[in-house]
Amino acid sequence: MLTEDNIPDQKRSSSIPSPIAWNDSTFLNPEVSNEEPEKQQVTKEKEEEKLFKALLYWFNLNNYALDPPHTNFIAENGKIASLIDDGVDVKEYLQEIIDKTKEEYRVNKEEAYDLNEFPFQFLSNCEKNQETTVVANISRGALLNLKELFSREHEGKVEIKDIDINIVEKAVKSEKDEWVNF
Questions:
Q1: Residue 80 host element (H or E)
Q2: What's the rounded Cα separation, in Å, for the pair 40 and 42?
Q3: Helix, strand, coil percent content, the chain, rounded in steps of 5
């Protein structure tokens, strides 16, 4: 966002502030932003990426409290990868994750989940890289599924539309604190 500090000196009338120097408080509607639409889109995408990574971390952390299979998914280059040992049957492991997730979160077809997206669906041909195996694509459906699981885990105390990075990080910290005090 442009501010007085980062715009070049220009001749201005002393009685009228330059429009590019206005901040969001200048507008009557706080939902209106001075940022260009492209920057708003980039910012929104970055926020969604951070939220996805935080929810994925929460999903892994939450799964360690459950019986195996434990998960260790990471987001990289628009994909979801896992650190799967060479001796593990990838398809069997991923099917165990699907089954356990459905069981633990009591998932059924009538609910708001997209069962064709992560963590209920994985790539049919998982791509093995040096240390990771790409198992799924990052998508809006996967993000919504993780939000739904997060909401379900917190017994509906948080609505999907209200889930943001701060709420997820607070939940992760709380869960870690519980483990330390256990």
A1: strand 79-82
A2: 6
A3: 45, 10, 45
Structure token digits, residue 166: 């701060």
Tokens representing 95? 């099917």
- Return the pLDDT at 182: 56
Q: Which two tokens stand for residue 6?
A: 């980062």
Q: Looking at residue 158, what is its pLDDT?
A: 84
Q: Nearest CA to 22 among 42, 49, 2?
A: 2
Distance CA 44, CA 100 (A): 32
In the predicted model, residues of the chain with pLDDT beneath 50 are 1-32
Asked if 145 and 119 touch (Cβ cutoff 8 Å), the reply is: yes
Collapse the DSSP code of 128 into the 3-class scheme (helix H, G, I; strand E, B; otherwise coil) and give the result: strand
Q: How far apart are CA 154 and CA 148, in angstroms?
A: 10
